[in-house]
Specification:
CATH architecture of one domain: 3-Layer(aba) Sandwich
Strand content: 5-15%
Strand order of the largest sheet: 2-1-10-9-11-12-13
Number of strands: 36
Number of helices: 39
CATH superfamily of one domain: ANL, N-terminal domain
GO molecular function: phosphopantetheine binding
Keywords: Phosphopantetheine, Phosphoprotein
CATH topology of one domain: Rossmann fold
InterPro entries: ACP-like_sf, Adenylate-forming_Reductase, AMP-binding_CS, AMP-dep_synth/lig_dom, ANL_N_sf, FAR_NAD-bd, NAD(P)-bd_dom_sf, PKS_PP-bd
Protein name: Acetyl-CoA synthetase-like protein
Distance between the termini: 52 Å
Pfam family, one: NAD_binding_4
Shape: elongated
CATH class of one domain: Alpha Beta
Length: 1115
């Protein structure tokens, strides 16, 4: 069949009516619309371009005879068949009137608002909507405006032939008189309204020029070039995409729009998942455009998936598609593409890749959630300081936008927040809206979309919204699926529903930061009589929904707040630990229904749940705030929402609270008080060294006959990702098995870790890189037998770098991980060849070493008392002892006592959650740096990566234990000079005590903005402890953060690694690189001293040229 004659897009035809008349002349018999003859019919009816053009003349005569009267705005409030709606729009445009399609789902108040904003006094509606239009007429009359309402029935003569299915009607219609002058490009063509998701819908004007320009987008032009016919049956005509798909695209491409069968004067067909695909199939469509709910339903139907797989594209927009549904469709071979845009700024995304052929979307299928910006659009991504970016769309000659909201610019700030793809430059994923971001009262920011999206994947949930703005913790408002509604006042039904959806909530919690965790008791369920308000496109109107449930939300928080009432219990006699134990016991008993948990027992094993923990915490905070003591009031700000979860015994709570209140009592010893008993450490050492096996594989040097094969655990953190990158870059390494704990997408997690640290992600695509999901604490690591056998039969080195870092956990909490180390020793014993086992320990374990005894030696320390400050340190002590015993028995074990790692000079990549970047950001905000004079023995991460390559390639035996600290420490003065110069050299330096005093003063009145601006407020206890221990060289108080107060022997480290022998002292250049990296991440503000991209690239190249090994990881 011949192809239609495509209208020119050179600007010679730049109104919709000009495009319609071109098609009527050149493609007269080609269908504008195809549709079934009847609802259940496979026979098709077509309405040609010529017929549509003739009907538009007829409607223009009926609406504005003789083109008399003003070019006024006419509102369309209809619920009718799509072809009829299209005709009304085209008839208004031909008559020179300004069409304003409005959703009949809008409230009378919303419609009145839109009418007033456009000075509209005329409506086209229908009898079935008379109740709505009468309310509008009455309300406008109160405002002194008389509305004229025309009934759709008066226009029936224009489309009567269609509804009678007489498409051969050739009755003559006089051409409507053209305008006396050609339509000026800047004249108004039509209004569209926003969805009203955040308030009343906004009226947005499109001139003829801007309306035509909107059609010249990648998605439209790419589809036109491919000759695609679309089914967009679920999109209403008053929605922007509905207008594009049913008016703009057919006129521009001469390709028919698929529609439902005509039912006028009956109500139109209601779209649902099945009939949309039935019509798409019958109309022989090449693509489908639908809302996410449709795709979610199709993903569950094998027959639907089989049909969708035959289409060239399945595009969705208007809201997020649950990941499970999208992944399932893509896995089945469906070409899923995300569409993104807005009435205010058009569609800046690119759908089609012209270089890759007709069936190739621009974004690869696996990245269906991501979008790429069109080359025609001008966009600016504005960093928000939390890893997200707001999209700003800027107008240019080829990309016009109807609304500007950036002062002084022709640009629109969308308030939509995106995140960049971790490994693929140019891909972006929407994560929420700026006004959706929930800012808790402590300044923490929650972007709720990912959690909400996952929970919406539960079959029991229709929609959910997180809430918590200016509160201490977040909650969740859930609208159950229709078949699962409950009475929210029925406590038993409510508890049951919460329990049923809890697995989804728990998984969603795991995707988010700790402060974004949703507790079960903070879940509200909607009342069936009060469903979520929705926009025309079906999306929940967040602001309106939360407003509708404001009373219930307030009541929930009031219940939580009431829990802070002491109920007659007096404040503690003092804030010392002994008195706090008794006082906390009273409160625990009151919260726990009169049951008194033992002081050393886990509260959650004695009746506490998350709500009880919240009540308990609130009582502690209330006592601190009610004391009248400014210091105690400041302590209240440091009690995190997880306070009771992190310290789940009365004894632990009393100990931590006492130390927070009085960190200087006993100086450093008070904060670092033994929280672990020596006898417990000794008992675990005895348990896990008992009956150690003897190596069965002899002393053979395996590297003499085989290239290294490495099993690496914990490769997604700072150190682990660098180890993995350097091993993969090393030509001599044959294979690396990267074993990481289970996650939703382990491969993407690794790529994200590399991207965050500016490591080359293509290393992960090498055949030698094998990503595994498991845990050494599980039998066979949790792997399938065949996979486990493959690993164990080939591995030559095991680098065990995975360990939970939580200084609040007890030693007993680490027993499973300690048992995992013993299991690794046994695996080495039975392996078919000798296996080297390197396990990461920590210099934090040595923080109580007496400096009078000289440098910390490179062998296990004999006295377990050095590691009693917390369970983490004690666990590392136990591990070192296990490895030492194994080494004595002939195993090739090495305990890697790791110090503070820092960002490399080449990239500066240093995560912003660590204490140094927090100190720097806070110092910039406070206007001063602290003087922390002393040695700095941090090791750059690239050097750590090189060190492991040296070890893996070593033919000689490695030491039993090494201290990984910089062999040639630099001074804080050098680091500080680099930091000050890069952020602006005029920032003064003040004594550390004074700097901490500034934090103390700010903490008493800190706002949410202060906590974001000065994040050191959240680590006030840590910085207090450093200041309190100045006499003891300050940094010995750092829980595994900084070991500069001690010196360390490094002879074994340097003997075993060329990289460590050659490592030069850190210079100011390292600090410059860190600041640049933090700026790029939005952690620090931009300044005039920021180098250009070109100069930074030259800096990186020069660093690569200096290093003998780093070129393998060039960026």
């Amino acid at each position: 069949m011949a192809s239609p004659c495509l209208p020119p897009i050179d600007g010679s035809l730049c109104t919709l009516i000009a495009l319609l008349d071109f098609n009527a002349a050149h493609n007269a018999d080609w269908p504008y619309v195809v549709l079934p003859e009847h609802e259940d019919s496979q026979s098709l009816q077509a309405i040609s371009f010529a017929e549509m053009a003739r009907a538009s003349h007829h409607i223009a005569h009926l609406l504005r005879p003789g083109r008399e009267g003003p070019d006024e705005v006419v509102a369309i409030v209809l619920n009718t068949d799509m072809p009829i709606y299209i005709l009304v729009v085209l008839g208004l445009l031909r008559a020179g009137l300004v069409a304003y399609p409005m959703s009949p789902r809008n409230s009378p108040e919303a419609i009145c608002h839109m009418l007033q904003s456009t000075s509209c006094t005329r409506i086209i509606s229908q009898d079935s909507l008379s109740a709505l239009t009468e309310k509008v007429r009455a309300e406008m009359a109160l405002k002194g405006v008389e509305m004229r309402v025309a009934d759709l029935a008066s226009l029936e003569p224009a489309f009567d032939g269609f509804t009678r299915r007489d498409t051969n009607d050739t009755s003559h219609v006089e051409p409507y008189p053209p305008p006396t002058a050609p339509d000026a490009l800047q004249k108004p063509a039509l209004y569209l309204h926003s969805s009203g998701s955040t308030g009343f819908p906004k009226s947005i004007l499109s001139t003829h020029e801007r309306l035509f320009n909107r059609a010249l987008r990648n998605a439209t032009l790419g589809s036109r070039a491919r000759g695609l016919r679309y089914a967009a049956l679920g999109l209403p005509p008053f929605h922007t995409m509905g207008l594009v798909q049913h008016v703009l695209y057919p006129l521009l491409s001469a390709r028919a729009a698929a529609c439902f069968a005509l039912r006028h004067p009956a109500p139109p067909v209601v779209p649902h998942a099945r009939n949309v695909l039935d019509v798409a199939r019958a109309c022989k469509c090449d693509g489908v455009f639908a809302v996410p709910a449709m795709l979610e339903a199709w993903a569950r139907e094998p027959a639907s998936v089989a049909y969708l797989r035959t289409l060239q594209i399945v595009s969705f927009g208007g809201g997020p598609l649950p990941q499970a549904a999208g992944d399932a469709l893509v896995a089945a071979g469906v070409r899923v593409a995300a569409a993104y845009g807005g009435t205010e700024f058009s569609s800046p995304t690119a759908t089609w890749d012209e270089a890759r052929g007709a069936r190739a979307p621009l974004v690869p299928d696996a990245d269906w959630q991501w979008v790429r910006w069109s080359a025609r659009a001008s966009v600016r991504m504005v960093a928000q300081g939390d890893g997200t970016f707001e999209l700003v769309v800027c107008e240019n000659e080829g990309y016009l936008i109807p609304v500007y909201n950036v002062p002084g610019e022709k640009a629109y700030a969308t308030a939509d927040l995106f995140e960049p793809h971790p490994t693929k430059e140019g891909l972006w994923r929407i994560v929420g809206r700026r006004d959706d971001v929930i800012i808790l009262s402590n300044g923490e920011k929650i972007v709720p979309l990912q959690q909400e999206d996952y929970i919406n994947g539960s079959p029991l949930v229709r929609d959910c919204l997180m809430f918590g703005r200016e509160r201490e913790q977040a909650g969740l408002l859930v609208e159950p699926a229709p078949e699962h509604t409950i009475d929210p006042n029925d406590e038993r039904a409510l508890a049951s529903f919460r329990n049923k959806i809890w697995p989804f909530v728990e998984t969603a919690n795991g995707m988010a930061s700790t402060f974004a965790k949703i507790f079960k008791e903070m879940i509200l369920v909607t009342d069936p009589s009060k469903p979520f308000p929705r926009a025309a496109k079906g999306t929940v109107q967040r602001k309106a929904a939360l407003l509708a449930y404001a009373e219930e939300i307030d009541r929930l928080y009031e219940t939580v707040a009431d829990s802070s009432d002491a109920r007659g219990i007096l404040p503690p006699k003092s804030w010392k630990e002994a008195d706090l134990v008794d006082w906390l016991s009273e409160h625990a008993m009151a919260v726990n229904g009169g049951r008194a948990p033992p002081h050393t027992a886990n509260l959650f094993e004695h009746g506490f749940d998350s709500l009880g923990a919240t009540f308990f915490r609130n009582r502690v905070i209330a006592a601190l705030r009610g004391s009248g003591d400014t210091h105690l009031v400041s302590i209240a700000a440091q009690i995190s929402p997880n306070f009771v979860f992190e310290h789940p015994t009365i004894q632990d709570l009393a100990s931590v609270l006492g130390a927070l209140v009085d960190p200087s009592s006993g100086s450093r010893a008070r904060l670092m008080q033994p929280s672990v008993k020596v006898e417990d450490i000794v008992a675990l050492i005895a348990k896990y060294t008992a009956e150690l096996p003897t190596p069965e594989n002899g002393p053979t040097n395996v590297l003499a006959v085989q290239r290294p094969v490495v099993l690496l655990t914990g490769s997604t953190g700072n150190i682990g990702s660098h180890i993995l990158a350097y091993l993969l870059a090393e030509k001599n390494v044959a294979k690396v098995y990267a074993l990481n704990r289970p996650s939703a997408n382990p491969g993407e997690r690794l790529k994200a870790a590399f991207a965050e640290r500016l490591l080359p992600a293509d290393l992960l695509d090498k055949p030698k890189a094998v990503s595994l999901t498991g845990d050494v604490t599980l039998e066979n690591f949790g792997l399938a037998d065949e996979q486990y056998d493959e690993v164990i039969s080939s591995v030559t080195h095991i680098i065990h770098n995975a360990w939970t870092v939580n200084f609040n956990l007890s030693l007993q909490s680490y027993e499973d991980q300690i048992a995992g180390v013993r299991m690794l020793v046994e695996i080495c014993a039975s392996a078919p060849r000798p296996v080297r086992l390197l396990v990461t320990s920590s210099v934090g374990m040595t923080s109580q070493w007496d400096p009078n005894d000289g440098p910390v030696p490179e062998h296990p320390l004999p006295d377990p008392a050095v590691a009693t400050n917390n369970g983490y340190s004690a666990s590392k002590y136990v591990v070192e002892q296990i490895l030492d015993r194994a080494h004595e028995m002939g195993f090739k074990t090495t305990a890697v006592r790791m110090g503070q790692a820092c960002g490399p000079e080449a990239t500066g990549a240093w995560g912003t959650t660590e204490w140094v970047p927090i100190l720097v950001r806070s110092s910039v905000a406070l206007g001063c740096f602290p003087d922390m004079t002393g040695p700095v023995n941090w090791v750059p991460l690239d050097a750590i990566g090189e060190m492991y390559v040296d070890w893996v390639n070593a033919r000689d035996d490695l030491p039993a234990l090494v201290n990984v600290v910089h062999p040639r420490p630099t001074s804080w003065d050098v680091v500080l000079a680099g930091l000050r110069a890069e952020v602006g050299g005029n920032v003064p330096v003040i004594p550390l005590d004074d700097w901490v005093s500034k934090l103390e003063a700010l903490s008493t009145t800190a706002t949410a903005e202060d906590l974001t601006r000065v994040p050191a407020l959240k680590l006030l206890r840590f910085f207090r402890s450093i200041a309190a221990s100045r006499a003891d060289k300050m940094s010995r108080a750092a829980d595994d953060h900084d070991s500069a107060g001690l010196t360390y022997a490094t002879a074994e480290l340097q003997r075993s690694s060329v990289a460590m022998r050659r490592l030069q002292p850190m210079s100011e250049a390292h600090a410059h690189a860190w600041v640049r990296y933090w700026r790029d991440k939005g952690w620090l503000p931009q300044t005039v001293s920021t180098p250009s991209d070109a100069s930074l690239a030259e800096t990186l190249k020069s660093v690569f040229r200096r290093s003998p090994k780093i070129p393998k990881l060039q960026l």
